Amino acid sequence: MKKERVNFITLPIVIMALAAFAGLCAAGENAAGYSYGDSAARNEACLVCHADAAKVKPAFFVDRARYAHTTHANISCPTCHGGSAVTHPAAGAAKADCRACHQAESEEYASGIHAGKTGCAGCHNPHKVKTPVEISGEEINKICSGCHNGFEMTAKHSEWLPQADLHLRMLPCITCHTASPDYYLSLYVVKGKDGSRFGRPELATYDDLKRLAGGKDVVSLIDTNGDRTISIDELRAFNKDASHRFLRLQGMMTPEVASHKFEILDDRRNCTFCHASGTPHMQKSYLSLPQAGGTFQRIAVQRGPVLDVVYSTPDFYLMGSTKSSRMNVVGLAIICGGLIMPVGHGTLRFLTRKNRKEEEEP
Amino acid sequence: MKEKIRIYLQPIPVRIWHWINAFGIITLIVTGTQIRFPETVQILGSYRNAIHVHNVAGVIVSVSFSFWFFYYKMVKHSLDRLYIPNEEDLKHGIVRQLMFYCFWYFLGRPSPFHATPEEKFNPMQKSAYLAVMFVLMPLVGLTGILLMNVTPLRVLILAWGGLKVIDGLHFLLACSLCAFLFTHVYLATLGATPMAYIKPMLTGWEELPKHDDHHGPSEDDALAPPGYRPVRHYPEYCGGPRHGGGGHLPG
Lengths: 362, 251
Fold this sequence. Notes:
The complex is a heterodimer. Chain A is α+β, with helices and mostly antiparallel strands. Chain A contains 16 helices and 5 strands. In chain A, a hairpin with an 8-residue loop joins strand 1 (183-192) and strand 2 (201-203). The longest helix of chain A is centred in the first third of the chain and has 32 residues, at 2-33. Mean pLDDT of chain A is 78; it is low at 1-6 and 16-36. Chain B is 60% helix and 4% strand. Chain B has a single domain (4-238), classed as Fumarate Reductase Cytochrome B subunit (Up-down Bundle). Chain B is built from 10 helices and 2 strands; from the N terminus they run E-H-H-H-H-H-H-H-H-E-H-H. By secondary structure, chain B is mainly alpha-helical. The model of chain B is unreliable at 213-251 (pLDDT under 50). At the A-B interface, helix 10, helix 14, helix 15 and helix 16 of A face helix 2, helix 4, helix 6 and helix 7 of B.
């Protein structure tokens, strides 16, 4: 009797546990590599209209190419918006609830300084959203500038931050407005606007690099030995290559974890967090190169003082951090030269002091 | 007690300028060291303090430099005469002064040059100040202004070769000024007493022992009319005694 009862209870528990494990595996796979069936076909049913700007309002337009690159394309439209009713489009479609998948981010956001100001879609277009590794720092700041006026932000930061305009131009806002303890340097290729040496630096496009690579993979421009890892020497060689004078590498300090709280940690107000040589936050880096679809591919770079390479470009100088040790030696030699008179002459002066006393007191 | 004559050598505007410059440059050297080596030097506390103080001191010294230039060029009209070595300086003066510093000083001979309001600097001083005031100071100021305004002056920075070049130039010029400072302060103590040359920059007046012989300027020297040339040709250096304070050259 006792034995039968055990089996009766144990069996459903085992079944439930297996089901839960299967569910966890599916969640672990997440959307990146997992397909909810034939998502392309399901998406296509929607995109027939929504990818055609003539058929839908601008707010409902979805750029087919951009959407195809997003993780959301893998889970298909109905997963977020529900099945299309026969009354669609008149009855509309369900509004996506991001929390269904992004619970942790939603909770973090709700406890931060932006809570109540705007929702997820205020910053992220779910039909264009890219992962942090696929996006350049400049694009990250475009998201913020949707609400935060650049001039106002510069004026506000100028109250305490020296050269606020320069900091805001060279860094993504989330470099400081983050809870991420670690950073990496995001390196990318820029060119002077309109090919001019003096032009404002802007991201080099895939076409620019493809042309320069002569039809080969754009990575081969920098990864010359083809080992899919960029060495510091390879970066230096690219920056010194005279054949593309107006293309150069630029580095951007990027938080390792994209947090949604946007608070400013106290140590980020301390300038030496960045402005000091050998800081641990500047040793890890990746190279971001544009891809055909408008996204970026990220390639690991040899760990080390990458900023010393970027320092050789005319637009980059991180005070206190990037400095030439050779120049320090030259400077020290000059200062020592100035000590020749006080030390050398002063010693002889002391030794010959009697001569002058005799002269003064004949 | 020896009788002394007094010469009004440094007018008030020059003294104010000099000490603003002195404190400004020392501040710039200290803060500049922290800015370049923040890992080891933290004299001003935070890095931001060092930047702010460095910028403020830099602006003060630049304005002071402009004031100096305006005062000597436009008000006193003596900039060229005081700071640019003349033919006599180049032919004999520099060598004579160099010989004094390197040899004759140790043998107890007097300086071949004595400052007057019209001819304040010896030939070596003139050459050094020419380099410092007409090359080093303007360049260190200009590179500093560029580094303070990287975004608005970006095109100019790129035209000069980029931030690395400007930063390197600013640093090496600052080191040169620092080297000059050591030499300048030391040479200022080489008067008859260690304070003899420093006192005029505090009070304006230089006190000199009154000589009956040719070893120093006479009372007439102090009252000499404009165009007066200083006592610079001592018999020790020219091979024969001269009268009336050691050889005034006609102005």
